[in-house]
Specification:
single chain, alpha/beta, Rossmann fold, 2 domains, 6-stranded mixed beta sheet, 4-stranded parallel beta sheet, 10 strands
């Protein structure tokens, strides 16, 4: 599979904007497609005074089935473009790209805050220890196969059973806007059926997956914890901006802009729809 890349000129401003904001550096946020908007929503909720540029590489989605070197190359191209735009920080809102590229990107740009996201296994394991039961981690094949994920499990798992469940079709379903479609529910029920009796926590290890949370809640019931890592990323971004004196004035109202590598405006419209979607609990 050949990776291609081009940066489009179209974008959409989804929050309030003003010419007075043009002097404030933006924060670049990117994902293999539109899934990273689940992280963007948390960033904006936590830091409403900051300006964000979101780039979804839907033309090359999903990253989770690509070789790591391709994911690294695509991530490097996106980061270089963000730097040309003058961003002050970058958030890799993609578990797969974090696994494949975050270490190399931080080495290339040591003075730039580059934050990634990883499956929220630690809080899920802690919850399982309190209430009993197993942890299920749904993620892309690449994320689950990476050494980084194996090391994370080694650090936090202990005696708690942790089941790795690849969900290779789920990214495509979200990219197609089928968050609550019957085929999505059938697919998720078939994936999770073996674990329903013992599951206490479900970790969403891909940023596309929170957009099917309402469907997942119907499947796993009210007692299962459903968790992702976006809140931790938002808090860490806040900490790093404050520590580096890069935070925008709290009196400002930030802007959010979307761009996507897919041709046309379909993914831009989907981005706006997802940004305003209620993800539930």
């Amino acid at each position: 599979m050949t990776a291609t890349f081009s940066w489009p000129s179209h974008s959409l401003v989804s929050s309030s904007s003003s010419a007075a904001h043009s002097q404030l550096a933006h924060i670049g946020v990117f994902d293999s497609g539109v899934g990273g908007i689940s992280v963007l929503k948390q960033l904006v909720a936590h830091l409403p005074h900051e300006n964000f540029d979101f780039f979804g590489d839907s033309a090359n989605a999903p990253y989770g089935t690509r070789p790591p070197e391709q994911v690294l190359h695509l991530s490097e191209v996106i980061v270089r473009h963000f730097l040309d735009m003058g961003v002050k920080a970058i958030v890799i809102a993609c578990n797969t790209a974090t696994s494949a590229a975050a270490h190399d990107l931080r080495a290339q740009y040591p003075d730039l805050p580059i934050l990634g996201i990883e499956p929220a296994v630690k809080p899920a394991v802690e919850h399982a220890r309190r209430v009993g039961g197993d942890v299920v981690v749904m993620a892309t094949q690449l994320t689950l196969a990476e050494t980084k994920f194996a090391r994370l499990l080694e650090r936090v798992q202990g005696s708690v059973p942790v089941h790795k469940v690849p969900a290779p079709q789920l990214v495509e379903l979200v990219e197609a806007g089928k968050m609550d479609a019957p085929e999505t529910e059938r697919y998720l029920r078939s994936l999770l059926a073996p674990y329903l009796a013992s599951m206490s926590s479900l970790v969403l290890g891909c940023t596309h997956y929170p957009f099917v949370k309402p469907v997942l809640r119907r499947i796993v019931g009210p007692s299962v914890q459903i968790i992702d890592g976006s809140d931790g990323v938002a808090r860490e971004l806040d900490r790093q901006l404050q520590a580096r004196h890069l935070a925008a004035p709290a009196t400002q109202t930030g802007v959010v802009r979307f761009a996507n590598s897919a041709p046309g405006d379909t993914q831009i419209k989907l981005s706006d729809r997802l940004f305003h979607m209620d993800l539930g609990r």
